[in-house]
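User:
Care to share a sequence and structure tokens?

Assistant:
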Amino acid sequence: MLLRDAELVETLLVSTALQGPGELNGSGCTPRGRHRIRLKIGAGCPAGAVFRGRRWTGEIYSTALGAAAPERDWILSRILWLSGCEPGRNRGGSVDTLRRYIYIHGCPDSEPMGMPRSHGCIRMRNTDVMRLCDRVPVGCPVLID
């Protein structure tokens, strides 16, 4: 859900971790609680832009590219890198969302939304994450419940 001044602006389907909720480093879980967008990556990149290590590879995702590397966790179009706001819960030590590289990011359109499938990140449709990235500022609060 996207809220502005406590008013619902839009509801979007996402996919969270296959392993469920959790905060521990290496758990493959989606961290809960209050977060902020620490960094936005990918402005100006085309839809389907492939990212590795938070850098555009120059590739655009296609079904052929996906078939050539089916084991890959595709991070596409935009990255909103999250930082936890709750020390001991999702910030610092072995529960640090930022150090876990937890993002809101695009994924292949063939991936289902509304069901857990990720390795901890929050996946969205490419068009949705691109629009979201344009609408929210760095520092925007994010609640993962």
Summary: Residues 13-144 form a domain with the L,D-transpeptidase catalytic domain-like fold (CATH 2.40.440.10). Helices lie at 63-68, 126-135.
